[in-house]
Design brief:
Layout (H helix, E strand, L loop, with lengths): L19 E13 L15 E8 L6 E7 L6 E6 L13 E4 L1 E4 L7 E7 L7 E7 L8 E4 L7 E6 L10 H18 L5 E4 L10 H8 L9 E2 L11 H5 L26 E5 L2 E5 L13 H16 L5 E8 L11 H9 L1 H7 L3 E5 L4 E4 L2 E2 L2 E2 L10 E2 L7 E4 L26 E2 L2 E5 L2 E5 L5 E8 L2 E8 L8 H4 L17 E7 L21 E5 L6 E5 L1 E3 L3 E7 L3 E5 L7 E7 L2 E3 L2 E3 L4 E9 L5 E2 L6 H4 L8 E6 L6 E14 L5 E13 L1
Parallel strand pairs: 1-29, 10-11, 11-12, 14-15, 15-16, 16-21, 20-27
Antiparallel strand pairs: 1-40, 2-3, 3-7, 4-5, 4-8, 6-7, 8-9, 10-25, 13-14, 17-21, 17-24, 18-19, 22-23, 25-26, 26-27, 28-32, 30-31, 31-39, 32-39, 33-38, 33-40, 34-35, 36-39, 37-38
Helix pairs in contact: 1-2
Length: about 650
């Protein structure tokens, strides 16, 4: 099997209309000829491990990655949890084919991943991976509103194994996730600061990192750290959407080597996330260095920046951090290369790890403090054009902490590490610096007109806190004054809106008393199967459209209609006319005055246009009763015998009209 990347999916759309028209699409597929062969059953049982839920290209998607002990065809199966009976998946559960390849690691085995698409808002889902007879355990997650406010959590360097005691590192990591999600159960994303593990290809490290079940319930947005990059296990365990694996985005310039790399992006509601491999920073390494990353960020923002209110950049190596890595030459290089470009591109927030300590920068513009008068620890900041906030996360597991280091006389802009004139113990670029030797995480509240960034304690000096337990560092935190869940730092970022006045309005769901329609149940592919030969004259395939639910509670009792038309059927460069498709509409459930429209014959029968032009599915007269109806149609596809063998698809476009 070959590895693959996920391309951007269309943003989810609400299907409702008060007046005028609205359209949606149903995929139709038919196989002509021999069809697809069913793989033979596996000769041995398959062990499935390392299951982790990941982010998709948008809020209606999730990815799932896992390891398999055998090289067998596998899939991901998902259904609304409410449809499971006695823990069993319904016959109509959606399935998504898995792809992957053999592991390039000492652990052996194979990696698999699949992407769930077409998720609905406000729904609990259950999923499992594998194949019939070799399924994994069942896991679950839930979706929330696909528009508006939400929270995500940011975690710095679990780096499982770095204390030297794997069990203690795992316990601290588990506890941070339990604390963070116990306090914030409706958080929608878990964002990584990198360094998931201490040793890139050490599966004991990875097993401990992946042990918490929260990683199968909330999507993990992965980031490559310097401890992850030295092997393929990062890519094998953590599939990401919209991933560019170009040579320039690998530190050694070789995607085929035993190292991980690449950049990716996704949009979740009002935030465009861009995640880059900061291990590649200099062309002397073999890759494209920071210039390649800047070109990538620029391209993504130019193409997709208008699709979101906020732009968040994530990479591992903190360029404005307070501890032992603050003066590293590679971070000084990045501190020169990135800030001006990020200011120009309108990035709002940069999230980083690597330095195992917490810091919140002043607003930085073009490599220097944007406002000389911004005070240390300010609770509210107002970035003018080009102001960017940089946040470094402390250890989320307690496996390793770095102590804060002292400024020098190297300057107060650019690559310098000089002192802050307003707070000389801090570096010039940091509004807040903190190291208590306790586990923390960062909560980011995404709101219509602000970002709220808060660093929260997930532990105290007490166990689990591996680095403290093992005597590697001391700890002064007092549980009475600084308990679990308390705030280390909090800032609200208020965006700049230019010289004019921006106007904003939230459009809610349709209120009672409107006309609306949806595709009933999971909007899957309408598979017409393999067409049957009719005495060498034509091929025929039949099926049913996914039912359409119409709801009308308007006081006006105005008329409505639902119609549809089909595109041509295509398989690569082969095609045949959609006129060959006909249908017989039906009212499956009465209500809302619904009446079925007349049958339309396949154009093969009457030399007509079939459904290649708009045809009625159902309608209601003026004065009809309020209520809900369900419309359906039997499909009849007759294909000329001159059409070549293939697997053809077409799109059925559905339109609703009401006055």
């Amino acid at each position: 099997m070959n590895s693959s990347t996920t391309t951007q999916a269309p943003r989810p759309a609400r299907r409702r209309v008060a007046t005028g028209a609205a359209g949606a699409f149903l995929g139709l597929a038919v196989a002509l000829g021999g069809g697809l062969a069913t793989p033979a059953g596996a000769a041995e049982s398959t062990t499935l491990t390392g299951v982790i839920l990941g982010v998709g290209a948008n809020e209606s998607q999730r990815t799932v990655s896992w390891y398999s002990s055998t090289d067998t065809a596998q899939q991901l199966q998902v259904a609304p949890t409410a449809e499971l009976v006695g823990g069993e998946f319904p016959a109509g559960a959606a399935t998504f084919a898995a792809t992957g390849t053999a592991n390039i690691a000492s652990s052996g085995g194979y990696n698999r991943h699949a992407t769930i698409t077409g998720l609905k808002e406000h729904t609990a889902y259950s999923y499992r991976v594998g194949s019939a007879g070799d399924w994994s355990a069942t896991y679950s997650f839930k979706t929330q509103d696909f528009e508006g406010n939400y929270d995500f959590l940011f975690f710095g360097d679990p780096q499982i194994g770095s204390s030297g005691n794997l069990a203690k590192d795992q316990a601290g990591w588990q506890d941070t996730l339990d604390v963070a999600l116990g306090a914030n159960p409706d958080s929608e994303l878990l964002v990584s600061g990198g360094d998931q593990v201490e040793s890139a290809n050490n599966e004991s490290n990875w097993n401990a990192f992946l042990a918490p079940d929260k990683l199968r319930e909330y999507p993990w947005a992965a980031t490559i750290g310097n401890h992850d990059v030295g092997g393929k296990a990062y890519e094998q365990h953590l599939f990401t959407p919209n991933t560019d694996r170009s040579a320039a985005l690998y530190s050694n310039g070789d995607p085929a080597s035993n190292s991980s790399g690449g950049n990716y992006w996704f949009i979740h509601k009002d935030v465009l996330f861009i995640d880059i491999n900061s291990n590649s920073y200099a062309t002397s390494q073999g890759g494209g260095g920071d210039a390649a990353h800047i070109a990538y960020i620029t391209d993504v923002i130019n193409k997709h920046g208008s699709e979101a209110k906020w732009k968040v950049l994530v990479f591992h190596h903190a360029i404005y951090s307070p501890a032992s890595h603050a003066k590293d030459s590679d971070n000084k290089t990045r501190r020169v290369d990135f800030p001006s470009a990020l200011s120009k591109l309108g990035v709002d927030l940069v999230l980083q790890g690597h330095d195992h300590s917490y810091s919140r920068s002043y607003l930085i513009k073009n490599g220097q403090k944007a406002d000389a008068n911004e005070q240390p620890g300010a609770a509210d900041v107002y970035p003018g054009p080009g102001g960017v906030l940089y946040v470094t996360a402390n250890s989320a597991s307690g496996s390793k902490y770095y102590d804060i280091t002292n400024p020098d006389n190297s300057g107060t802009s650019g690559a310098g590490n000089g002192a802050d004139p307003l707070n000389p113990k801090n570096y010039w670029y940091n509004s807040v610096q903190d190291q208590e030797h306790v586990r923390t995480y960062v909560k980011v509240q995404v709101r219509n007109d602000k970002l709220v960034v808060e660093n929260l304690r997930s532990g105290t000096c007490a166990a689990p806190n591996a680095s403290v337990e093992l005597g590697q560092v001391s700890c002064k935190n007092t549980p009475a004054g600084q308990p679990v869940g308390s705030t280390v730092d909090k800032v609200t970022v208020h965006p700049y809106h230019g010289s004019g006045q921006d106007l904003q309005v939230n459009v809610p769901e349709a209120a009672p008393g409107e006309f609306g329609w949806t595709i009933d149940g999971y909007n899957g592919l309408v598979d017409l199967g393999t067409a049957k030969d009719h005495d060498g004259e034509y091929f025929e395939a039949t099926g049913k459209v996914n039912p359409i639910v119409v709801t009308d509670s308007r006081r006006s009792h105005a008329p409505w209609s639902i119609s549809a038309e089909v595109s041509d059927f295509k398989d690569a460069d082969k095609t045949f006319s959609g006129a060959n498709l006909g249908w017989t509409p039906q009212v499956l459930e009465a209500g809302a005055g619904a009446k079925a429209s007349g049958s339309v014959a396949s154009g093969h029968d009457d030399n007509g246009k079939g459904l290649s032009v708009s045809r009625g599915l159902g309608w209601a007269d003026q004065g009809h009763a309020k209520g809900t109806a369900k419309l359906g149609a039997d499909l009849d596809l007759k294909i000329p015998d001159s059409v070549e063998k293939g697997a053809y698809r077409a799109t059925l476009t559905i339109t609703a009209l009401s006055s």
